[in-house]
Design goal:
Length: 426
């Protein structure tokens, strides 16, 4: 059905006409911003007096269909999916007055299945559709929101003049559904950070610290809140895997301290527990590609040297050079070339066995060498190594376990040092 008035292309003077359905905080704010931008808007709300307190906004029309007849771009700002379906697809909904120039912009936060359902309904009658998450809602009337769009480029371009009149920034995230997905993810960051603040506040209060002190520390150390998005920026920058593994070690250590603090004061910290348990997943290390190893050389000596590099790193193997005594010769040609290289057990399996034997000797220096090799090969996480220390203590005795603990913690400290060099192997 063609528009009631305007130019042949369905617009007034070549400018798209605007409509708003739903005059709550967001929809009402959008209508006010449109008026302040000099763009008249027709509106609808189930409350006849909904526009009374909205400066410059006209009285609501009788139905969404009436808004569609007098508009080219209609923003829908209702509460939930059921209301969105009724406003768009109902008997007196927007699509009941569909015309070729009509574009529906859904501002309500709903699930992606609903987005795709409504997009398909619009497409079936030749109406453009954009899913549009908005934030922050309390800035709607001040031209202060960001519009987070999903939809076809041509539809975005058609709606852009109207969108810019109520949004300070328009971000086109991709095809249909992309805007809503981005808005939902934004909400996860918001509400997830609230839970983080709740647990952190409980910890400091239990420790006898005023929350004002915590707020002062955070605001002084990070006044622009960059830490909240640090992980996102690391992903954007493509931070190297070795650096992420150093971050993991620090992350696990610091979260363990938070767990200990909570245990001391009886404060439950479920978010901390999950964050520590899933540190690798958080940093994307669980999805890191496994580095394929080249086949071992057929020559026995070369195989021994290569296997020693895989177990302890290049520094130790290179320091040996050409063996000058029977012990070193047998270490390369038999221990590494013939035994460590066998495929029946992995290097990690053999490392565990060797750690067990080394623990029984009470030699912290040997444990440190083995642990450094395990960390270099990314065979164990720090928490797994600490778990191994506890397990071995019950078998090798507490004195030997103390040496084992000292060797493991020394290797971990060296591995996580920001300016660390390769551990000296002896």
């Amino acid at each position: 059905m063609p528009a009631d008035n305007g130019s042949p292309d369905g617009t007034t003077g070549g400018h798209p006409r605007a409509g708003v359905v739903g005059l709550g905080m967001i929809g009402g704010g959008v209508a006010v911003s449109l008026v302040r931008s000099g763009r008249a808007a027709v509106v609808h709300d189930v409350r006849p007096d909904a526009a009374d307190a909205l400066a410059g906004v006209p009285a609501p029309l009788a139905s969404p269909a009436e808004v569609a007849r007098r508009s080219d771009v209609v923003m829908v700002a209702v509460v939930n999916a059921a209301q969105a379906r009724e406003v768009i697809c109902g008997e007196n909904g927007l699509l009941a007055a569909a015309h070729p120039n009509l574009t529906v912009v859904l501002l309500s936060t709903v699930g992606l299945p609903t987005v795709h359902e409504l997009a398909a309904a619009c497409e079936a009658v030749g109406v453009g559709f954009l899913d549009c998450g908005v934030t922050p809602g309390d800035k709607a009337a001040e031209h202060g929101m960001v519009a987070v769009l999903g939809g076809a480029d041509v539809v975005v371009e058609r709606a852009m003049p109207v969108l810019r009149d109520w949004a300070k920034k328009v971000v086109h995230c991709g095809p249909s559904g992309a805007g809503m997905a981005t808005k939902i993810a934004r909400n996860v960051i918001t509400y997830g950070s609230w839970r983080t603040v709740a647990e952190a506040s409980a910890l400091v209060e239990a420790a006898g610290v005023d929350v004002d002190a915590l707020a002062t520390v955070i605001e002084s150390a990070d006044p622009k809140g960059a830490t909240l998005l640090q992980l996102l920026h690391m992903k954007q920058d493509g931070v190297s895997e070795p650096l992420l593994r150093q971050v993991e070690n620090l992350m696990v250590k610091d979260l363990a301290a938070a767990q200990e603090l909570g245990a001391e004061f009886g404060v439950r910290t479920p978010l901390v527990d999950v964050a520590r348990e899933r540190a690798r997943q958080t940093l994307g290390l669980d999805e890191a590609p496994v580095r394929p190893l080249a086949p071992l050389p057929r020559d026995r000596r070369e195989r021994g040297v290569e296997m020693m590099k895989r177990v302890y790193g290049s520094e130790l193997a290179d320091s040996i050079g050409e063996p000058a005594d029977p012990f070193t010769t047998d270490t390369l040609d038999h221990l590494f070339a013939d035994v460590w290289s066998r495929s029946e057990l992995s290097v990690r399996d053999r490392r565990l066995l060797t750690l067990g034997v080394a623990a029984s000797t009470g030699r912290a220096d040997l444990i440190q060498i083995q642990t450094a090799g395990a960390l270099a090969n990314e065979e164990f996480t720090p928490q797994q190594l600490h778990e191994a220390v506890l397990h071995l203590a019950l078998y090798v005795g507490w004195c030997n376990a103390t040496a084992t603990y000292n060797g493991v913690t020394a290797a971990l400290a060296d591995h996580t040092a920001p300016d660390r060099k390769s551990t000296e192997q002896r």
